[in-house]
């Protein structure tokens, strides 16, 4: 009797999870408002607000760019734009991962007191980091002016790259956020992994330097997502192989997140 009832018991959970996703996306006014409030609270009483991050990035690139360009034997006019877009894009990727891991824990009060779709808390994190990323893009402007870089039409190809990063961030935040709600120490582990990935991903250096071991970069998911935004601006239109690899990555992430979210969704309120 139990075996015959199991399939029927699984159906409502899939429906509840799907309804959570749909209702969360539809509640765009809620998560956009919460994202703006988060940014205001974070930079309350600050004159420049989130632009402090932008200024810090400019100073960091000015300090590191010429040094690493000289060590790698690459001219500043080529390396600094490469490094600048790498740092700016990494800020988005690392931000959605780290904030996504703490999405449910950080929203503990809302999860326990207000009946909202769990998707709202994830989209709140993504929206917040997307706004900060838009601010940080201004860090590229001084280098454009100094190096005489003019905008080109191919730069528009970076917009789908941003969309791909956000599409990958959604299931990643669900997975890491749920796991971090259950195992609180996991946030520290995730932060360490992201820091390690920062040095293992071609940001300060180019993938061509790996030579016969270039597969470390070719199958590095961080590098794939980073190149979908950086390459159209710095080098040219990305090859189709890059988008195919990202598509495979998205399929894996969404399948894993769907199974995980359906199974553990009901326990989140108790874990936080």
In short:
The chain has 272 residues and is mainly alpha-helical. Helix content is 78%, strand content 0%.
Compute the CA-based radius of gyration: 20 Å
Q: Give the fraction of residues assigned to helices.
A: over 70%
Mean pLDDT: 84
Span between N and C termini?
35 Å
Description:
- This protein has 272 residues and is mostly helical.
- It has one domain (14-271).
- The protein has helices spanning 2-26, 28-42, 51-72, 76-101, 103-106, 108-113, 118-136, 141-147, 158-182, 186-200, 215-218, 221-234, 240-264, 268-271.
- α1 (2-26) packs across α13 and α7 (118-136) packs across α9.
- The longest helix has 26 residues, at 76-101.
- The protein is globular.
- The relative contact order is 0.13.
- The model is unreliable at 1-8 (pLDDT under 50).
Topology:
Blueprint: H1 2-26, H2 28-42, H3 51-72, H4 76-101, H5 103-106, H6 108-113, H7 118-136, H8 141-147, H9 158-182, H10 186-200, H11 215-218, H12 221-234, H13 240-264, H14 268-271
